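TASK: fixed-backbone design
INPUT:
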């Protein structure tokens, strides 16, 4: 059974930090690009960050300098460190495995999501 399971979400005050984890089972992510997306209430799913198999990273302008994506292939896990959080970062965060080629939105597996709420 293929699963991507996110954890680490929660309620945090503006300016705070959270670290999200995404553990993969049933699939090998070590040779594949992995991504994080988010979806705010009433909004569309938005791409956040990407990490290639070799560890290269790219970020959406809205999170650049505040978020950091990383991976631990030995643990089949991808992380999203989120610092200096803002209320507009409130969303359900999803990890995903990108297909070879295609746009950032070309994904073959999604996690179930973890809620992040930034509020005082």
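OUTPUT:
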């Amino acid at each position: 059974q293929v699963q991507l399971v996110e954890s680490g979400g929660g309620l945090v005050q503006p300016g705070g930090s959270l670290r999200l984890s995404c553990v993969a089972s049933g699939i090998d992510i070590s040779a594949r690009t992995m991504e994080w997306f988010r979806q705010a209430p009433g909004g569309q799913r938005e791409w956040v960050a990407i990490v290639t198999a070799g560890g290269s990273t790219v970020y959406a302008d809205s999170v650049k300098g505040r978020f950091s994506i990383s991976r631990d292939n030995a643990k089949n896990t991808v992380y999203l460190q989120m610092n200096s959080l803002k209320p507009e970062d409130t969303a359900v965060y999803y990890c995903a495995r990108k297909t070879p080629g295609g746009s950032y939105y070309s994904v073959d597996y999604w996690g179930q999501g973890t809620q992040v709420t930034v509020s005082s």
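COMMENT: The longest strand covers residues 18-25.
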